[in-house]
Amino acid sequence: MKNYFEEIKDKIKKNIKLEKIEIIDNSHLHKGHKFYSPEKYHLQLKIKSIYLNSISRVNAQKIVMKILEVDLKTKIHALEINIEQ
């Protein structure tokens, strides 16, 4: 079975022209929080994309969230998106 983070990268790469993507799992920082669940991830995406930098930050984040729409309902509890220059 493919690593879940690789699946996320593949989904984003299929839909957006990227120069670089990095996924950081910050789930361990949220243990003990009220709605913490070990089945759901707290992720930070660091994306370098000329395309995403050419549109507004809000629209860029909406595009990424639309791509991960199902994951946000099932496997991702929190998502931080950083679009790098």
What does this structure look like?
This protein is α+β, with helices and mostly antiparallel strands. It has four helices and three strands, in the order αββαααβ. The chain has helices at about 5-15, 50-55, 55-65, 70-75, and strands at about 20-25, 40-50, 75-85. Strands 1-2-3 form a three-stranded mixed β-sheet. The protein is elongated. The model has no long low-confidence stretch (mean pLDDT about 90).
Brief overview:
The chain has 85 residues and is an alpha+beta fold.
Number of helices: 4
Helical percentage: 25-40%
**What would you report as the Rg, rounded to the nearest angstrom?**
13 Å
Q: What is the strand content? A: 25-35%
Structural class: alpha+beta
Oligomeric state of the chains in view: single chain
Instruction: List the secondary-structure elements in sequence, H or E.
Output: HEEHHHE
Low-confidence stretches: none
Mean pLDDT: 90
Number of strands: 3
Strand count, sense and barrel status of the largest sheet are: 3 strands, mixed
Write out the strand line-up for the largest beta sheet, numbering strands in chain order.
Answer: 1-2-3
- For the termini, the CA-CA separation is 33 Å
What is the overall silhouette?
A: elongated
